[in-house]
Structures are given as C-alpha cells and as structure tokens.
Amino acid sequence: MTGKEQQVKNSFIYMLPLLVSGIFPFVALPILTRILTKEDYGILALAQIYAILVSGFADFGMRASYDRNFFKYKNDKIKSAQLLFSTLFFVILNFVFLASLTFFFRNTFADLIVRDAQYGNLLFVALCAQFSSSVSYYYYSYFKNSELAKKFTAFTIAQNIINVVLSLFMVAYLKTGVIGIVYAQLLSGLIIFSAQSYKFLIMLKPSLDKSILLESIKISYPLTPTIFFGVIGTQFDKYMIGLLATVGGVGIYSIGQKVASVAFTFMTAIQNVFSPQVYTRMFDLKEKGGESIGSYLTPFVYISTAFALIIAVFSEEIISILTPVSYHGAIDIVTVLAMYYGFLFFGKITPMQLIYSKKTYMCTVLSTVSMGFNIVLNILFIMKWGAIGAAWGTFLAAVISGSLFFMVAQKHYLIKWEYLKIGTIFLVFFASAMLMIVLRDFNADYATRLILKGISIGFYIYLGIKFNVITMDNYRLLKDIVFKKMFSCEPSRAVKS
C-alpha cells in the first residue's frame, strides 16, 4: 500500500470513532433533554468550566511538548517509552495535588463557579471525570503519531459507547439527576485509561528519564498561561451568560455548543491524519517543508469546513429533531458556533508552527490578546443579546485573534498556503451560514430556506470538484481502500511513503 493510500485509509479509520461519538450522543440527547432541564445543563456546563481549567493546569502544556518530542525520539523505542511515562508521571502528580485542593475547598469553589455551594461534590466529580478522560490523550497521541489508527479507533469507540450507555443508565434509570452524567464520564474514562495502561505496559517498558522530562517541561511551561487564557477564551462565554443572564441561558448555549462542536470533533479527527505529516515535513525538510505543507493542507481545509457547513446550514433541523421546544433557542447559536469551529482549522496549524520554532512564549502573548478580545466582546454582546450574543462574541473574537496568530506564526515558520482556494472555501462557508440566519430572522418560509440550503451545499460540492478535491481518481482510491483493503482480512504490511 502506498503512502497516500495509507493516509486515506487512516482517515476513514479515524472517522469511525467520529460516527460513534457523533451518533451516540445524539441518540442520548432527545432522552436526556426531556429529563434534565435547561438549568441542569447550565449547572453542568459551569462545573465543567472549572474541570477543564484545572485539568489544563495539571497538564502544564505537556501535550504540546509531547507531540513535538515524539517525532524527535520516534526511531528510539526506549526514549519514546521514557518520554511517554515521564510525561504521564508528571501530569498525574500535578492532578493529584490540584484535585486534593479541590476536594477540601469544593464548596467554596462551587459557590464561586456555580454560585451554589451545594454543588461542591458535582464540581469535584466533574474534575476527576475530565482528567480521567484527558490523561488518555498521551496514549491516543502515541497511537496517532505511530499511525496505529485501528488501536486509536477501538479505544475511542469503546469510551464513547461506555460513556453514553452509563449516562442513560444513571440519568434515565437510576434517576441520579445531572451528577449522573459526570459519574458516567468518570467511570468510562477510568475504564479506558486502565485498559490503555495495561496495553502499554505490555508494549513498552515503563521507565522515567529526568533529562527528557526537564526538556519537555522547558518547552511546555511557557504554555501554562496559554492554557488559562485558552480556557477563558473558550469557556468565558458560558460563565458570563450565567453571571449576566440566567443559568437556563447557559443550558441553551451549552446544548447549541454540543451540537456545533461535532464539527470540531470531525476537524480533530482530520488533524489526527495531517498533524503527523506536518511535523514530519517540518523536521525532515526544515524550512523548505513549508513549500509543500500549504498545498498538502488545502483538501483538509475543504473537508473539515464541509462538516461545519452542514451543521450550520441544517441547524434548525438538527435541533428540532433532537430537543423539545424549550431548547429551540439554540438554533442560531448552533449556526454561529459552527462558523466559529470551522474557522478554528488554522488554530490547529499555527501552534504547530510556533512550537516547532520553539517560540512557545508567543502562544502566551497571543493568547493573552485573544482572551482580552473574548472578554470584552462577550460582556458587551451578552449584556445586549444574551446567549446568542455570547456566540457572536466568541466567533468575532476568534476571527480577530486567529488572524493575529496566523500572521505571527507565518513569520516564524512560513507555510505557502493556497490563499485563493482557501479564501473561496471560507467565503462560501460563511456566506451560506449567514444566509440561513438572515432568512430565519426575516421569517422566510421553510420551502425557500430548504431550496437555498440545497444550493449552498451544491455550490460547495462544485468547489470541491473545481479544486480537485472531489475527483474520479480520489473516488476510485476511496472505493478501493474502504471496500477492498480497509475491511479485508489481509494481514497489514509495512508502509513505505
């Protein structure tokens, strides 16, 4: 199998967990939204803000340094193992300390975050649940970067299935209320992390290396403020809705964000395919790698944006099917946040440029600026328009700060992007999404909206053909891989790129 065929095959293997992580929550959502109130979802969202923030500090920016250094030691099995286990040891030690503080002061923190001290236990369990899932990142990253797509997929699918089944069991059968969701997340995360640890203890000899760990910390510690600012940037909107509007508004917003974030999930899966190739070209070709990376990434821009476009255009159908009327205020929120997630493609690339260049401090500087834009715009927009204002504030802040990130990253590691192609892709994407919002605001009849939805999707497909993303050669390649090789019982062979 050629290198291109292997990449395409891996792309489809990575899509399998997306089908599960996308379909299964949507199966559960109509049930959960008819049991849990908007206020329940609002409280859950606020508790998860704290969990994401603390887990980020426990991580200490080690994800970025691990992904970078993996390729440095990829040909040395001993050092690869030392990198993995040293990183895990450091991150888990950080978490134990921070989780202990949370446990002893959980009611105080709950009063600050959720504005009700009685949710202290929910806050603590949410933190443990978040970490039990996020710590598995390093195992998943090893699979991804080693192009062990099937192992990556098997664990991801298992975790999603276990999480959804346990959530329904806790909430619908045991009647635990909203805390049942975080208990389900905690149990599913622990099960998968334990299984992964067992697998890796068989594959790799566990050992620590002080020098490798210190090297990773040296790269990662400038990113710690970035983590804080990043969480503020992505979660501040929900907190301010709760502060300036209502907890119910937080619930509506969080449902809209959950649906829209499916686009981000697909984008993450696509990143799992291209990021190893991008880092490989950076390390192998140095500065010359940027000449080929741009054209290499154009199809990925198109594909990832396509998912965001579908969600943005069909937001009203998705929300109407999945939730009762009380949640339908999330329709426009989904459309706006889908635009936000679609634009985040460059947010996957620009940090790689700065991290490769060892300019991690720039991430902190730029994240500070981004946080400033996000805070100001969210406060102004939420005070004026409530939850939908938060969506617009988040999107506009991302466009402004993302543009700054892009310009700075290009100065440190130049990627020759195909600007005309990607510009056209985003123009069609944003125009289609905005058209849907305008038509709903002016109460255009559904038949008109449906026709224009079809035209938007059709024109986007035309762009794929024009830009040679949708071709007969690619179709035949996909057909061959998906139906003849991907699901065949033939033993895998070593791949030479």
Radius of gyration: 22 Å
Percent of residues in helices:
over 70%
Average per-residue pLDDT, rounded, comes to: 83
Supply the helix-strand structural class: mainly alpha
The count of β-strands is 0
Overall number of structural domains: 1
Head-to-tail CA distance between termini? 9 Å
* Shape, principal axes of CA atoms: globular
Main sheet record: none
How large is the count of helical segments?
A: 21
N-to-C SSE series?
A: HHHHHHHHHHHHHHHHHHHHH
Oligomer status: single chain
Strand content: under 5%
Protein described:
The protein starts with a helix and ends in a 12-residue tail after the last helix. It has one domain. α1 packs parallel to α8 and α4 (77-104) crosses α10. It has 21 helices and no strands. It has helices spanning 3-32, 38-59, 62-72, 77-104, 106-113, 120-134, 137-145, 149-173, 179-203, 210-220, 224-244, 247-285, 290-313, 315-322, 331-343, 345-356, 360-385, 387-412, 419-441, 446-466, 472-485. It has 497 residues and is an all-alpha fold.
